[in-house]
Design brief:
Distance between the termini: 191 Å
Strand content: 25-35%
Helix content: 10-25%
Strand order of the largest sheet: 12-13-15-16-17
């Protein structure tokens, strides 16, 4: 070969070399090319850095770009790289014309038609990573790793997923999602849940712990709703009893440690069934034993019952209980409210024959001083004046006492003669229309003509008589008899 910058195409060696190039381009472009066409097409072909100015088109299917992609260090393997100085490299696959999808695939066999592969596919409606197989190829798990070791994410051919675990950590009937750390989130065919070291076994139809430290989990079932279940014990394959801790049904019923029958259903054997606190006040609701339950505060604070955002019932730490708009400080039980609207209290018997007791007031002491053992006190004028009281100073001594101390009175004078008025009263016997009961006393309208200060008017407009009872009726009748006898004697 002459020593020159031009190639001598007439030498046998160059001619043979051109034949090889022609064969290459024949397979590459689908036809024979001249050495000039070949060199022009490749823009100056060299064995190390070929430059192609146009599209590289393969005339037939099954063509390959081949090179040593496996031996030596990674830096010596064929690599895609931009030819722009300090530029970034990007490799794309696009459809042609009106095509709608493009993909990159990697296979685990040179026999593509019978291999497992992983594809990254761009579709019109989604971007997919597909782990699949062709022909006799076997679908393999999809594993995402960090630093080439361990398992960050594991997707089995059965579409069961694990985070931080691999196939060796679960059974063939394991969950759809299993997180193999101290705690995690699990979803399965029965629902899903928050759990620790636990998976759902299809064959055992139960939750199974993989290691110690199972802290409980939520389960959702389309028919039963949400359930919080606490697992116990340790050791791989240990079945966790499905003891319900929290269940929220699809109907909105909430059960704590039981299947709910009501809106909120709680079952507990612990000290407190329901406990609420803000760091200072502690409120509890709990069955203390089979005999009674408890609701209230555990701290030195009053317990209130509200209606319409207003406290109507108060239980003070001292044990004082008040109903109504305000509390009476010096009473264990107080009832307050607008008595013009309705009675402050009403005691009503509801069973026939319940005539034994209506209201019972009992005291521990038995002071024999008259009026000392007060059972009921009557106070008027917003508590400023006493109207009287019912007291007892021993067995069989219950009586009504008026406040009659001279220190409470003024303008004291003698009562005018009353004989004519007393003689004008008409003691009567009668029967009540309501129940036919027989009575002795007076007619209010007749007394009103003589002593109007003894007559009151009820809410229904009916007249009421105060200060004259059966005893007074009989005594007045006796006085009238004596007066008649005196009149006869005086007439003689």
């Amino acid at each position: 070969m002459a020593s020159t910058n031009f190639v001598d195409f007439s030498t046998p060696i160059v001619a043979a070399w051109l034949n090889d190039i022609n064969a290459f381009f024949y397979s590459l472009f689908g036809g024979a090319v001249t050495p000039f066409q070949a060199l022009t097409a490749i823009g100056g072909l060299s064995s190390t850095n070929p430059v192609i100015s146009g599209n590289l088109t393969f005339a037939s299917g099954g063509a390959r770009i081949m090179g040593d992609f496996s031996n030596g260090p990674v830096s010596n393997r064929p690599t895609f790289q931009t030819n722009q100085v300090n530029g970034n490299t990007g490799v794309s696959a696009i459809p042609s014309g009106t095509g709608i999808a493009a993909s990159f695939s990697v296979h685990n066999s040179s026999n593509i038609d019978n291999s497992a592969f992983l594809s990254m596919v761009a579709l019109p409606t989604s971007m997919n990573i597909d782990n699949s197989a062709l022909g006799s190829g076997i679908v393999r798990p999809l594993i995402i790793q960090s630093a080439g070791t361990g398992i960050g994410f594991y997707l089995s051919p059965q579409n069961r997923a694990g985070v931080g675990i691999g196939s060796a950590d679960w059974s063939a009937d394991n969950t759809s999602l299993d997180i193999g750390q101290v705690g995690g989130l699990a979803f399965n065919t029965s629902g899903g849940g928050l759990y620790a070291n636990t998976y759902f076994s299809q064959t055992q139809a139960n939750w199974v712990t993989k290691a110690a430290g199972n802290a409980g989990y939520f389960v959702y079932n389309t028919s039963a709703g949400w359930t919080l279940t606490a697992g116990t014990g340790a050791g791989a394959g240990l079945v966790v009893p499905l003891a319900t801790r929290l269940r929220i049904t699809n109907e909105g019923l909430v059960g704590i440690k039981k299947e709910p029958t009501y809106t909120l259903d709680i079952s507990t054997s612990s000290t407190f069934g329901l406990r609420v606190e803000d760091g200072i006040v502690q409120v509890v609701l709990t069955p203390v034993s089979s005999a009674y339950a408890m609701v209230g505060t555990l701290t030195n604070h009053s317990f209130y019952l509200f209606a319409n955002n207003t406290a109507h019932v108060q239980l003070a730490p001292s044990g004082q209980f008040s109903i109504g708009q305000s509390a009476v400080a010096d009473a264990w039980l107080s009832v307050s409210g607008n008595a013009a609207i309705r009675p402050l209290a009403a005691f009503t018997g509801t069973t026939a024959g319940d005539n034994a007791n209506g209201l019972v007031v009992s005291k521990f002491s038995n002071d024999l001083t008259p009026g000392s053992n007060i059972f009921i006190k009557f106070i008027v004028n917003a508590g400023g004046n006493g109207g009287g009281l019912i007291a007892a100073s021993g067995s069989g001594t219950a009586a009504f006492f008026n406040f009659s101390d001279e220190r409470l009175k003024e303008n004291i004078t003698d009562l005018p003669p009353q004989l004519d008025n007393v003689l004008s009263l008409r003691p009567r016997e009668f029967d009540f229309k309501a129940d036919g009961s027989h009575g002795i006393g007076f007619i209010a309208q007749e007394v009103q003509e003589i002593y109007p200060d003894l007559i009151g008017v009820g809410e229904d407009g009916m007249l009421m008589l105060g200060g004259l009872s059966k005893v007074e009726a009989r005594l007045i009748s006796a006085i009238q008899e004596l007066a008649a006898r005196v009149a006869v004697l005086e007439a003689k």
